[in-house]
Amino acid sequence: MGDNLRASTTPVEADAYLIAVPTPFKGDHEPDMVYVEAAAKSIAPVLKKGALVILESTSPVGATEQMAQWLAEARPDLSFPQQAGEQADINIAYCPERVLPGQVMVELIKNDRVIGGMTPVCSARASALYKIFLEGECVVTNSRTAEMCKLTENSFRDVNIAFANELSLICADQGINVWELISLANRHPRVNILQPGPGVGGHCIAVDPWFIVAQNPDQARLIRTAREVNDSKPHWVLNQVKTTVADCLAESGKRASELKNCLFWPGIQT
C-alpha cells in the first residue's frame, strides 16, 4: 500500500485516532456503549502526549465525556480535557459521520461536519484534521451538542416517516388513496409529506431515536411514539399481504405458488 496507507489489526502509535464502532441498543432500548469502551481501552496504551481522539459513532449525549473518562482511567500518566481543560495532554472531540451507503467516499469529502470538542483547543485540532480532505464546512460546537445533533437528524427523519406511515393506516381505514392524498396535500407551498412505506430499517434511523428516549423518557413522547408507529408498520403490511393473498386465493381458486408466479408477469408492479 506504500507509505500513505497501512493496515494493522492492533492499535499503533499515531497523531490522531478516529473511533467509528457500532453503538446498538440493549433489549430495553438502552444504549450499548461496550464497543466504544473497548475501542477506547484498546488505543489507551499507545496514546502519546499531543494525540487527538475523535469519536464518530452515533452516541447518546455524554458519550464523548465518558470515553474521555475511560481513557483517563487507563492512562493516569496523561492529562485529559475534563482534568486540565485546554492544557490537556490529549485532545478529545466528537464528530458524527454523515454518509449515505453507496456514496461514502463522495459524502466524506462533500458533506459539512459538526465538530464538538471538549474544549476550544480540541475543536480546533479536530477541525484541522478534517480540513485536510473536507470540501464541506467544519461547524464547531461542544461535544454534547454535536452528539445531540446527530440524534436529532435521525429522529427528525424518523418522526416525518412515522407521520406518513400513520397517514397510510388512517387512509386504509377510511377507504382513501393515501398516495393521492399526499400528492394533493403537498401542493400546499409549505407542506412536504414523505411517502409511506413498510416501516424503517437499518442501524441508524431505527436505533438512534431510542438514545434520546432512554435519556429523556418523560420529555421524548413524540419521538417514542414515532418509533412505535414505524416499528409496528411491518406487522401491518404483513397482515395486509396475508389478507390480500387469502382473498385472491378464495376468488381465483389458485394455489399460493401459482399466485406468486403471477407477481413476475409483465406489467405487474412489485
Automatic annotation (TrEMBL):
UniProt superkingdom: Bacteria
Indicate whether Oxidoreductase appears among the record's keywords: yes
Record domain UDP-glucose/GDP-mannose dehydrogenase N-terminal: where: 6-124
**Which Gene3D superfamilies does this chain map to?**
Cytochrome c1, transmembrane anchor, C-terminal, NAD(P)-binding Rossmann-like Domain
Q: What class of enzyme is it?
A: oxidoreductase
Q: Name one GO molecular function term.
A: NAD binding
Q: What is its EC number?
A: 1.1.1.22
Q: What positions does the domain UDP-glucose/GDP-mannose dehydrogenase dimerisation occupy?
A: 144-231
Q: Which UniProt keywords apply?
A: Oxidoreductase
Q: Mind listing the GO biological process terms from this record?
A: polysaccharide biosynthetic process
Q: Of which family is this protein a member?
A: Belongs to the UDP-glucose/GDP-mannose dehydrogenase family.
User: What NCBIfam families does this protein map onto?
Assistant: NDP-sugDHase, PRK11064.1
**Record's protein name:** UDP-N-acetyl-D-mannosamine dehydrogenase
